[in-house]
Design a protein that fits this description.
- The structure is a homodimer.
- Helix content of chain A is 63%, strand content 13%.
- Chain A is an alpha+beta fold.
- Chain A has 5 helices and 3 strands.
- Chain A starts with a helix and ends with a helix.
- Chain A has a 3-stranded antiparallel beta sheet.
- In chain A, helix 1 runs antiparallel to helix 4 (41-53).
- The radius of gyration of chain A is 19 Å and the shape is elongated.
- At the A-B interface, helix 1, helix 2 and helix 5 of A face helix 1, helix 2 and helix 5 of B.
- Chain A binds a DNA duplex through residues 13, 15, 29-31, 34, 39-50, 61, 63-66.
DNA sequence: TTGACACGTAGGAGATATCCTACCTATTGT
DNA sequence: ACAATAGGTAGGATATCTCCTACGTGTCAA
């Protein structure tokens, strides 16, 4: 139930978060993903490996392509991890709204 | 509005996530925080610096103590960042429920 | 005012991350 | 069968992380 360290570590890289974002539009082959990055493909492959090992993406072979798709379960765990912190920003928002309400007088 | 890279980088360390967890119970001095860790204090100071620069904690000097408190705003941004991924686990949960419903026949 | 306390900073060692080039494997089209 | 395509692996250079010890700074208490 606790979030695996690998998930937070995987999310620490902007390139890997960008991969996840691209996969929001559906499965994508490595070559198509690569077009969105300045790095060489082997570097992207490494990022994909990190994402795979964190359980954030999965791979399906389709002919000579490899389609990567989003696996969001670990992100749900991150969301759960955030829960105890919610009240800390809820109260901030409440204070702000109170402030705005006063302004409205 | 996008999450700063520093926030995800800060969250990548289990020690730093543990600090955030401890601060859920309220502001704490460095010495009290240190009791929960095997590392030496200078290492903890470094982690606190990373958290500070990510805007996740803030420091208040109280006599010769320094009280650290949680600053959850960046975590709200992480929560916002997660939003587009929600439907990916929502549908998973829905599918699971459908499956269970069928089992119940 | 002087010693003890609470922390931070400096600097360095070792591990890990991130990028690269070169090369290997598997699949497809001809 | 063979060249081209898609993508991974190997290995290395450099940067960054994470920990350490040693030391500096500010504050309090006697």
């Amino acid at each position: 139930m606790p979030v695996n360290d690998d998930v937070f570590a995987a999310l620490a890289s902007p390139a890997r978060r960008e991969v996840l974002k691209l996969l929001l539009d559906g499965p994508m082959a490595v070559g198509d993903l690569a077009e969105h990055f300045a790095m060489r493909r082997p570097s992207l492959s490494e990022h994909l490996r990190v994402l795979r090992e964190a359980g954030l993406v999965s791979e399906r072979r389709e002919g000579r392509h490899r389609l990567y798709s989003l696996d969001a379960d670990p992100l749900r765990e991150v969301s759960d991890w955030l829960t105890p912190y919610e009240r800390f920003w809820r109260t901030k928002l409440a204070s702000l709204r109170d402030l705005l309400d006063e302004e409205d007088l």
